[in-house]
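quick one before i forget lol
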Amino acid sequence: LEDRPKSTTITGTGSTPGVQGTQTNYTQSIEEYLGPEKYKQYLQYQETQTFDYDTSNAEIQKLRSFSDYNVKRKTAEFELRKFESEETQGWIERLIDKNKPYKTDEEAKEALKKEKEAIYNSNVENELKIKEFEQGAGGKIKNEILESNSELRAIIQRTEDNNMQFASDEDRLRYKELVDRNGELRKQYVNDGYEETFNSIIDTYKNNQFLQQEYINKVKDYNTASIFEGALALDYSETARAA
């Protein structure tokens, strides 16, 4: 959001290092800067501190619900095992089985395997996109902007109290050249679509990190469900022997 277009006015004595007596005003609102879709996500994040990711993929939805289903069913079986009436046992089918995303554990294992491969392939593709971007024109412009920013900071740090009012004439001239050049580079970076491309790569990276963590959690839940199943089988066998 700090990259929004802005204007700077002189207000008197200020405290910002290198900028004595200035005030920055954004010339574009957050909504205008982000656009409708990202602004909606921004408002949601401000309210919930979370982001929504694409939930349209039916396979992902099945994967997300599988582990939750397995734990619920095994817990229900364990809690209801002493109540053998058809009505009581029917609760499991009516309340849990109707939401079962996979018919067998093998089907679930295969689905988890496919998801792992999909996340891995997405990461590989994104790494290639990053390398391609860094080696292309967009990466060169981005690096030039970063180098320019670094030199600007170095000039400020050379001055007394980090204040450009105390800079030498040579440093003042170089500082102005860098600021002007930075503005031109930044404009080209945005107008030629490089910023959008780079942001898309970063968004994909973040989404993959999110999906990786979800996958890890699902595997943990799946293992927990297997423990429930084993305990339940043992409980039934002991009950049968006692009978």
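fyi The first strand starts at residue 6 and ends at 10.
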